[in-house]
Amino acid sequence: MFDLLRNPKSIRPGPASPLEGRAVPLCLEALEDRTLPSGFGSLLPIPPLLRHIQRDLRDVKADVNMLATALASSTNATVKADLTALQAGLATVVADITNGTNATQDLARLTNQLTTLNQDLGSTATSSVRHELRDLRQDFRNLSRDLRFGDLTRGIPPVLGGVEGIGFRAVTDIQRTLASVKADVRALAAALASNTSAAVKADLTALQADLASVSADIAAGTSAAQDLSKLTADVTTLTTDLGTGITSNVRRVLTSLRNDLRGMTNDLTTLANSVNQSVADLQSDLSQLSQQLGPNASATVTADLNALDAAMATLAADASAGKNLSADISAVFSDQLTLMGDLNGQAGTSVRVTLIDMAFDLTGLGVLTI
Questions:
Q1: Under DSSP, is residue 35 helix (H, G, I), strand (E, B) or coil?
Q2: Environment class of 253 (CB within 10 Å of its CB; exposed 0-12, middle 13-18, buried 19+)
Q3: 272 C-beta neighbours (distance < 10 Å), count
Q4: What is the mean pLDDT of the chain?
Q5: Nearest-CA neighbor of 91 among 69, 75, 113?
């Protein structure tokens, strides 16, 4: 989950990306047999926002299809025309997002078409049709909210620097080094295949098992520090049990393996420090947001802030424990989008800047999550 976006805080400058200055709109792109939002450019955008938009569109399409099925037997020409207009309006909104153009007007027109259909149905609507109409109205509100946030951040080019840049380099180094470690262990196993020492065979088995654990940790996005420490100890034990009578090839592979493990340990430490710094930045953003909204915030906004604070606390605790942060990042972002929707476009400039900053910080944290 390497999700790249710039953190605009001037207190954390970093080397500019070669993509700096390129502004690419939020749109959809084909990925195998799926259509997914491609976001702000060739680098991956704010992933939770795009998942929300993808989910919104999926829900809208499903509800329109169910509504069409429920009304298939209707003989009312006006209702049939309304349904046709609704389906065409949805296709236009999808095309807007796909092409990276502003969908606000077409989404408003689609909402009005739904209102017209509801009025023309009148009392003839069954309970299942009324249920689908309610779901569609909610889906339209969700999509409108998420697209407003996309428009708010549109045109801000992806840049990787500061804490995120350091952390991302550690992530890429870890991946590259892990591949090298696996190659070294395979070479070592081949070179020692004829060794008859029971201790050496046991050492090699333990080394392979702990390497599998490190690889699984990294694949799961959890801390690999403990298993990496075991793996390093395995190499030391194997070296001791092999003694001095080893071939130059085995000695070379052991040296390479020790160097790779030392580098991976340093990279994991850098990554952990960067994650902690990003979490601290997010907590600072949230504190600033609470101060900006102040004690005069509505009860709904206050509840949203409390939910956001709770989600942030979970994120901080899981980061400290070395757990996978994907679900936590999505939860914080989801609560942030709810807050934006409840603010209903009434937030001042400083609040909007803080909300955008939080989104970038969340994405920066995604950069640091393997």
A1: strand
A2: buried
A3: 18
A4: 77
A5: 113
Rounded Cα gap, residues 222 and 218, in angstroms: 6
Which tokens is 97 given? 């997002």
What are the tokens at 113? 């078409």
Domain boundaries, the chain: 28-153, 162-270, 276-367
Whether residue 11 has pLDDT greater than 60: no
Q: What is the pLDDT of residue 369?
A: 58
Tokens of 214: 């490190």
Instruction: Give the whole-angstrom CA distance, residue 96 versus residue 99.
Output: 5
Rounded Cα distance between 202 and 204, Å, is 5
Q: For the whole model, what pTM was predicted?
A: 0.54
Collect all residues with Cβ–Cβ distance below 8 Å to 259 and sequence separation of at least 6. Answer: none
Instruction: Indicate the SS3 state at residue 244.
Output: coil
Q: Please list the residues that pair with 36 across neighbouring strands.
A: 29
pLDDT at 320 over 50: yes
The confidence score (pLDDT) of residue 336 equals 86
Neighbouring C-beta atoms of residue 211, cutoff 10 Å: 24
Among candidates 131, 138, 122, which has minimal Cα distance to 66?
131
Strands (E), 231-349: none
